[in-house]
Amino acid sequence: MVREGYQIDIYKIDTKEKIDKRKILMLIFIILSIFCIILSAIVIEKAIRRNKIYNQYIAQIQEMKKQEEEKQKRIAEEAERKRQEKLPKLTETGRQNMESIYHSDTKQAFLTFDDGPSAITPKILDILKQENIKATFFVLGNKVKNNPELVKKIYDDGHFIAIHGTSHEYSQIYSSEQTVLDEYNQCVEEIRKAIGEQEYNPHLFRFPGGSVGGQYADVKIRAKELLSQNDILTIDWNALNGDAETNKLSSEFELKRLSETTQNKNSIVVLMHDSPTKSVTADTLPQIISNLRSQGYEFKNFYEIIK
User: Fold this and answer.
1) Is residue 22 helix, strand or coil?
2) Is 291 exposed, middle or buried (0-12, 13-18, 19+ CB in 10 A)?
3) SS3 sequence, 251-297?
4) pLDDT reported for residue 2
5) Terminal CA-CA length for the chain
6) Which residues are designated catalytic?
7) Which residues, at least 6 apart from 112, have a Cβ–Cβ distance to it below 8 Å?
8) Which is nearest to 160 in space by CA: 112, 89, 227?
9) Which residues have a Cβ under 8 Å from the Cβ of 134 and sit 6 or more positions away?
10) Are 132 and 159 in contact (CB under 8 A)?
11) 209 in the Ramachandran plot: left (φ > 0), alpha (ψ -120 to 50) or beta?
12) At residue 47, what are phi and psi to the nearest 5 degrees?
């Protein structure tokens, strides 16, 4: 029952409720919006932080890669520098050095070994290593072909590898000046195979039996000119241990011959052999080195001449 004089306005109530609902919905929307903004900000900030960390990581990786590349480049450059140092290069200075090799104000000794390599070469190499001496080996092409690992060791140990021909058969190598050059080139090719270095050329030849005199003197004169035209120098010796002079070798004999042939000489190129029958030379080598040192000789090899 409705009291008299009191009237309910239903339209007014509905409108007010609608307004309250809109406010509530608006408030909820605002709260949700703020939450979404905060959440988005957190997500964006984390993404930015992750991206920054990622970029730093990438930068570190790139820097490490750059450093590694630079390190490898330096290693490669150093390896190439060392490789080039072991490749003889004939220059005008080298020619002049060879012309004056027997003239020196100070005492210098070039230890040279012919006719190898052979089974006694490793012992000679061990002695040279112990004495910290670099020598010169005038090798034969046919021996190089049969003992490539020894040639590689000679090369890796820092000794100078020069040419003594291929056959060591006088009638063959001295049949003409061209055969001398041919045997030189054949030996060089065998050395290149053995050491794995296709650019190697020592520019240095020792005539079997020496460069002057003998039955083939005229051929040697012409061959020497032909070799020179092909940038190949020649060298003999001015001292020796006599290991090619007799089949009855002894340490006493070798030391005596060395003493006789080094008298009053400042610069000596010592002829020795590392062929299979010269084991006495290997046995006597420590004494040879000791005697020369006691006389004040400094040991050198042909890398210091042809460079």
Assistant:
1) helix
2) middle
3) HHHHHHHHHHHCCCCCEEEEEEECCCCCHHHHHHHHHHHHHHHHCCC
4) 46
5) 130
6) 114, 273
7) 135, 136, 137, 138, 162, 206, 237, 269, 270, 271, 272
8) 112
9) 128, 157, 158, 159, 160, 299, 300, 301, 303
10) no
11) left
12) -65, -40
Where does the chain show beta strands of DSSP type E? 108-116, 136-139, 160-163, 204-205, 233-234, 239-240, 267-273, 298-300
Q: What is the pTM of this model?
A: 0.82
Planar angle of CA 39, 41, 47, nearest 5 degrees: 105
What are the tens digits of pLDDT across the range 102-115? 999 999 999 999 99
CA distances from 37 to 28, 31, 193 (A): 14, 10, 75
Determine how many CB atoms are found less than 10 A away from the CB of residue 276.
14
Closest CA relative to residue 250, chosen from 271, 270, 278: 278
Answer whether 129's CB lies under 8 Å from 159's CB.
Answer: no
Q: Give CA–CA dist 198/192, Å, rounded.
A: 5
Q: Which helix (H) or strand (E) segment is 53 a member of?
A: helix 10-85
Q: How far is CA 147 from CA 92, 121, 124, 215, 281, in A?
A: 34, 10, 15, 31, 20
Question: Whose CA is closest to 299, among 109, 92, 93?
Answer: 109
Classify the phi-psi angles of 5: left when phi > 0, otherwise alpha if psi is within -120 to 50, otherwise beta.
left
CA-to-CA distance for 67 and 98, rounded, in angstroms?
45
pLDDT confidence of 201, banded at 50, 70, 90?
very high
Instruction: List, in order, residues 6 or more apart from 144 with CB less than 8 Å away.
Output: 117, 151, 187, 190, 191, 194
14 band by pLDDT with thresholds 50, 70 and 90: low
